[in-house]
## 1
Amino acid sequence: MGIEGQFKSLIARTQRELTVASNGRAKGYLSDIRRFPMLEKDQEYRLAKRWRDQGDRDAGNQLVTSHLRLAVKVAMGYRGYGLPISEIISEANVGLLLALNRFEPEMGFRFATYAIWWVRASIQDYILRSWSLVKIGTTSSQKKLFFKLRSAKSKIAAFDNGDLQPDQVALIAKNLNVADQDVVDMNRRLRGDKSINAPLHDDGEIGEWQDYLVDQSPSPEAIVVEQDEKDHQKNALIAAIDVLNDRERRIFEARHMTDEPPTLEDLAAKFNVSRERIRQIEVHAFDKVRKAARNLAVKVPAATQEAPGV
């Protein structure tokens, strides 16, 4: 069996034997990995060269299995996220494999120094994928905030599960070099997902969270009323413009009803009059339209009140 197959076997056993690290079921796996000897620097170098240059699976297997204890040690530091420790250790082991395929022994570093970064990255990616139905982190700063927020809260004794105080938010945001709102949002998301069907007890009455959800969008009645108002204003404007003569209408529409209104100079050249004359016509036309629209707005409610059956 090659190194990939051996590692799959180790991962499968991890998943079978480990569910919660504190319940003693990890002892079998931990006892097994202790039998793999630690390597001296020159041994590690020779094995890494054989793996990279010759594809020697036995060499790669020795190099990785000698660092299984490192993977477990790192994995144990991520027990506070409510995920199975067996899965976290499995991801840590995957990180060792990734590190093996990219390790350059000539760089002078020990394999453990290089591999620990891959182990952490693999674990963190797993946690981000598994933590919530909603994607937690998309940028490097959000990922950093996700994994640093708990320790930052403990340093300022912010142990409550509710929202942070404004001064606490400001202090954490400053220490982690992120925006205040990012701290508020991430702190709320760290509480985990909650079903809208979760039972809620309020003054002796049993209900669900969904019973208290409020739709902030406008009601269908409000949407219809708003659309009717817009249609009325549009029709009133069209009717009001009819009080203008041809030149007034053309200038008014050019200045107030186009996406890019022409300048007074442009219109002056077009109508062969002065810039000041265009301005006067525009002001006069606007005043006529405003008065006509106001009169129409007054007439419509009056007609409604006189309608039979109202």
## 2
Amino acid sequence: MQILKHGVRSRGEDGFLPPRSYPRTALAIILAVFSFQPMTLAQQQSPSEAQVKAAYLLNFAKLAEWPHTGLPEGPSPFAICIRGGEEEFLNVVKSVVAGKTIGTHPVAVIRATSEDELKSCHIIFFRTSEKKHARVSVGSLPKTGVLLVGEDESFLQQGGMINLVRDRGSIRFEVNTDAMDHSEIHFSSKILAMAKGSYGVAPAASSSNPSADGSRRLELSPAPEYPQLAEHLKLTGTAQVEAVVKPDGTVGEVRVLGGHPLLAEALASAVRQWKYQPSPKETTERVKFSFTPQ
């Protein structure tokens, strides 16, 4: 499992501000995490950890492609549910999402205290205090249309989809791609690339040994070349692609599933040259590769 190398620095969980005193400039920094909008020097203030996590939840809602069955057209509320934790955090989330909409749906923040309440949520954020009960809660929820977000190191292993983690003063995120696929909630490759890795797919390979996850044996698999520009920028991380393999074993279309665009393209270029064992029919194979400086 790898941790995103992109995030926002924060004051820490004990640095809550009163709900009416959040600086708008600080929230602009957080919202830029996913909107990719430029920030001025005046905007570079340090938001609290609670504000950062609240903004992540809002932007996950805004940038996801939701299945129609889970979010039908109409004015019904989009429910962000908080499971566990303190009242201060709930107030922070309410302040960040106040007046926001997801399409035609006004965003509502709910403190979910029962399993029945969880079933009407679109995003559920499990606080650390709920880690002992998270597995049971996750197992009882619908498999599609609900985004499960946590903040505990074991959350993805319990079936969670996105986990927010602290790393050197920044809030970053990691993704369980298997659970995400089953949920029918989709994010663009640009967003998934920010995670630079995932939990729940084939183990990451070393820089000299790509990991192929599929049904066909490889006959020829030259390793990807570490791009010169990536080396200059000191980029590291894992890329993942999906390849359509023809019956004769040659590779046709290659689709990027995740990873920094430079690294993903290097992997895709290598995989296009691979040769698999022949098969009676066309198959789809997944390949994952970890890039490190040479």
